[in-house]
């Protein structure tokens, strides 16, 4: 049996991190964790309960009442985000959540809560996790770190196509503005900002198909499995 390792996939919004990380996990027989879904679910909780993430008391109270876990969808077998027992995988992709998630994810206590949960999920290794700070903060000793990049125009197109399916009223300008704002906040926050880990390998998928990017990633991972 090959060695079980930790693979991290970080990068800007809508670079295709989750598509790659999910495919890689399937190929390796590993668990896939979408860390962004956790910040999105926490954001949903704050919005639904009218709580202010800039008020420390409200944050600590909220975090006591939030339980997050991933569960496979019985039909697709894809792992989906559950918040306090409810499947929120689809609702957390809404633009209302996307507009606030970077602000929520910049709060120190919220990051500590999410990072601790992510580190527990990686205790047994055999995991592919995607996000912004996985290679730098969550698993600084991961065996393989991938940092994904893609041209902004391509990222906007991809995210627009994905969001348009659920909400035909959405405009490309809205999607572009949201991606640019999230990139800015994610890269400039004080606590573990988005940056490439020194030992991460850059994977530019601007001109790659899903199949091609998976092949590139497998070539990166393979030497670490023996
Ligand atoms: O990957 P995503 O777009 O679903 O992530 C949603 C937001 O969560 C993103 O704008 C920044 C935040 N995030 C983060 O701060 N750290 C992570 N490890 C993952 C996501």
Task: Please provide a written account of the structure.
With 226 residues, this protein is of the alpha/beta class. It has one domain (6-214): Rossmann fold (3-Layer(aba) Sandwich). Helices cover 47% and strands 16% of the residues. The chain has ten helices and eight strands. The protein has helices at residues 17-28, 35-48, 56-64, 95-98, 101-104, 108-121, 134-138, 152-166, 172-188, 210-221; strands at residues 6-11, 31-34, 68-72, 79-83, 86-87, 127-131, 144-149, 201-204. The chain has a five-stranded parallel sheet. The protein is globular, with a radius of gyration of 17 Å. The model has no long low-confidence stretch (mean pLDDT 95). It binds 2'-deoxycytidine-5'-monophosphate. 2'-deoxycytidine-5'-monophosphate binds at residues 13, 35-36, 39-40, 101-102, 105, 131-134, 182, 186.
Which features does this protein show?
alpha/beta; Rossmann fold; binds 2'-deoxycytidine-5'-monophosphate; 5-stranded parallel beta sheet; 3-stranded antiparallel beta sheet; 226 residues
Nearest-integer average pLDDT: 95
Q: Would you report the number of β strands?
A: 8
Strand percentage lies at 15-25%
**DSSP helix count?**
10
What is the molecular shape? globular
Instruction: Look at the structure and give the CATH class.
Output: Alpha Beta
Secondary structure: helix percent: 40-55%
| Amino-to-carboxy terminus distance | 9 Å
- CA radius of gyration: 17 Å
Bound molecules: 2'-deoxycytidine-5'-monophosphate
SS-based structural class?
A: alpha/beta
């Amino acid at each position: 049996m090959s060695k079980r390792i930790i693979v991290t996939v970080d990068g800007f919004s809508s670079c295709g991190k989750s598509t790659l990380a999910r495919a890689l996990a399937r190929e390796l027989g590993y668990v896939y964790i979408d860390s962004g879904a956790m910040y999105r679910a926490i954001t949903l909780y704050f919005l639904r309960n009218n709580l202010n993430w800039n008020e420390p008391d409200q944050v600590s109270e909220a975090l006591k009442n939030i339980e997050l876990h991933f569960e496979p969808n019985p039909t697709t077998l894809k792992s989906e985000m559950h918040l306090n027992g409810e499947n929120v995988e689809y609702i957390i992709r809404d633009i209302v959540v996307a507009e606030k998630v970077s602000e929520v994810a910049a709060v120190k206590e919220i990051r500590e809560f999410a990072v601790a949960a992510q580190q527990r999920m990686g205790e047994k290794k055999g995991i592919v996790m995607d996000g912004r700070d996985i290679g730098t903060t969550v698993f600084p000793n991961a065996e393989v770190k991938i940092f994904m990049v893609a041209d902004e125009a391509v990222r906007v197109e991809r995210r627009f196509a994905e969001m348009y399916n659920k909400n035909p009223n959405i405009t490309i300008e809205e999607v572009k503005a949201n991606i640019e704002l999230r990139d800015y906040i994610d890269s400039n926050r004080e606590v573990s900002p988005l940056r490439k880990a020194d030992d991460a390998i850059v994977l530019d998928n601007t001109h790659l198909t899903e199949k091609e990017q998976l092949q590139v990633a497998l070539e990166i991972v393979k030497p670490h499995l023996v």
